[in-house]
Amino acid sequence: MATFRIPPVLRPLTDEQVEVEAAGDTLGSALEALFQTYPDLRSRIIGDDGELRRFVNVYVEDEDVRTLEGLQTTLEPKSSVIVLPAMAGGAR
């Protein structure tokens, strides 16, 4: 099973879990398994078009999946996945 590292901003949607595991041969299938347990995560990670949201970066073994195969990126049984939503802010 892949291990997903959950950032603080998304932890309220995973019962405050820092890491969660999900089975799948690809990032997309592992995310679908993750959404079965934590359905509120879907809208924060996947857009209406079924693709990763533009402002969410996902890394498999420290590689940006957008430079790999996106949701079709192959996962190994012990893959480490980091989900990192972009943060916005600024000075007034």
Quickly describe the structure.
The protein is built from 2 helices and 5 strands; from the N terminus they run E-E-H-H-E-E-E.
Defining traits:
alpha+beta; 5-stranded mixed beta sheet; Ubiquitin-like (UB roll)
Description:
With 92 residues, the protein is α+β, with helices and mostly antiparallel strands. It has a single domain (2-85), classed as Ubiquitin-like (UB roll), CATH 3.10.20. It has helices spanning 27-37, 42-45, and strands at residues 2-5, 19-22, 56-60, 63-64, 80-85. The chain has a five-stranded mixed beta sheet. The longest helix is centred in the middle third of the chain and has 11 residues, at 27-37. The radius of gyration is 13 Å and the shape is globular. The model has no long low-confidence stretch (mean pLDDT 94).
Structural class: alpha+beta
Task: Please state the average pLDDT score.
Answer: 94
Named CATH architecture: Roll
The gyration radius over C-alpha positions equals 13 Å
Order of helices and strands: EEHHEEE
- Number of DSSP helices? 2
Helix content: 10-25%
Largest sheet: 5 strands, mixed
Amino-to-carboxy terminus distance? 44 Å
Total domains: 1
Number of strand elements: 5
- Strand order across the biggest sheet? 2-1-5-3-4
Using the coordinates above, name the CATH class: Alpha Beta
The CATH topology comes to Ubiquitin-like (UB roll)
Describe the global form.
globular
| Poorly predicted spans | none
